[in-house]
Amino acid sequence: MGSTSMERRWVFPIVVTSLVFLFLLATSFNVGLVSSLRTINSLFSPSRATANQTNPNPNFVESQVGRTPSPPAGSSIPRFAYLVSGSKGDLEKLWRTLKALYHPLNQYVVHLDLESPPQERLELASRVEKDPLFAAVGNVHMITKANMVTYRGPTMVANTLHACAILLKQNKEWDWFINLSASDYPLVTQDDLIYTFKDLRRDLNFIEHTSKLGWKEGQRAMPLIVDPGLYLSQKSDIFPVSPKRSLPTAFKLFTGSAWMILSRPFVEYLIMGWDNLPRTLLMYYTNFVSSPEGYFHTVICNVPEFVPTTMNHDMHYISWDTPPKQHPHILTLNDTAKMVDSNAAFARKFKLNDPVLDWIDRELLHRRNGSFTPGGWCAGSPGCARVGDPRKLKPGEGAQRLRRLIERLILTTQLGQQCK
């Protein structure tokens, strides 16, 4: 009995002590939890609202983990990250476009798809590796494991996202991503482009878009297709499958140009995907005809955060039929006046070594004998043999033309014309 009484006397203090300890532990944990939640909430943004619904509870939000803030306009010299892609027979066109675009502050990814002969891809890799300037600066990267790309299928979207991921991994010190093909060519120097974009907000996205699908609703949105480039090593065109599908109600469809200038915040959103929308739409557009002309546009116009950043222009001069066909006109010397009057930064499509390219080199870029386009960074002899001061800019008439185009786009944006 004495032993039992002794045990009972110890039980009560132990229980009380345990309860006090648990209470203090829970209080400490809750204070820390509240503090942590307040810190984490500062990294969050309101949840995406679709066209047909709003978020009923603003406390449930998606994290923006991994997002890098953009510097304010005018705070530093902007930098561009390029994807220049080509296919079979495009080696020389791609090489010429790359040298015309080059600036030591930019980043470049070049890609010849799997349809290109191995000899062409090896030659491109050799040129990139052996070029003294590229080797010294280290800002030109080649996708050596080539992707199969079908223009009208999702493989082109996948290739673009692949390049975006590489550029984010290699160097995050860039402000805008630009996708071009080997059939594109610049109409302004990189000094013109950098100088003009220096005073712009770094979150702006230049992407031609519209929600008025017209004939595309029945011929592109509703049919289901399969892109053999997803599973075959030889290129073949997309083919239709049955049945057709209805138009979506969870998001609104947009369409536009496959060529664009995207801000780094939007590119990070596409790749990091703190909201699940980019992945959802990527699955939807896997079976969509000409998905490069819809995926990026539908993503950006269904995210309220990015809608105010859209500029409805692809910064290209392209000559189309009316109504447009699958491919635009091939540009020649007869189109020079229209190209200049467009005030655009780029133009397409060009044939290999067409005389119009020599005219652009001579009259607009002041580029000689297949060398780099001259700029304030050029030093050494012959011209641009080495990098001088990469932050020194020498803008020309191209900057004035480009500024006129952007001023018009900003005015249109102020009138509330985004994502209509």
Automatic annotation (TrEMBL):
Q: Where is this region: Disordered?
A: 47-73
What are the GO cellular component annotations? membrane
Where does this polypeptide localize?
Membrane
**Single GO MF descriptor:** glucuronosyltransferase activity
State where it is primarily located: membrane
Specify residue ranges for compositional bias: Polar residues. 47-67
Source organism, top-level taxon = Eukaryota
Family matches, as InterPro entries? GLCAT14A/B/C, Glyco_trans_14
Q: How is this protein positioned relative to the membrane? A: Single-pass type II membrane protein
Q: Which UniProt keywords apply?
A: Glycoprotein, Glycosyltransferase, Membrane, Transferase
Name under which the protein is recorded: Uncharacterized protein
What is the scientific name of the source organism?
Kalanchoe fedtschenkoi (Lavender scallops)
